[in-house]
Amino acid sequence: MTVASPFAEQLAHLPVAERSLPLAGGVTRFWEYGTGADDPDDRRDAPTLVIVVHGYRGDHHGLEPVIAQLDRPGYRIVAPDLPGFGVSTPMAATHDLDGYEAWLQEFAAAVRAESPSARVVIIGHSFGSILVSAALAGGLAVDDAVLINPIAAPALTGPRGVMTRVAIGYYRLGAAVPERLGHVILSSPVMVRVISVTMAKTKDRALRRWIHDQHDRYFSAFANRTVVLDAFRASVSHDISEYASRITAPTLLIAADQDDITPLAAQHRLAELIPDARLVVLEGVGHLIHYERPVEAGEAIVAFLDRSVDRRGDTDGADDGRSDDGRGA
Question: Which of 25, 126, 182, 227 could form a disulfide with 84 if both were Cys (CB 3.0 to 4.6 A apart)?
Answer without folding.
Answer: 227
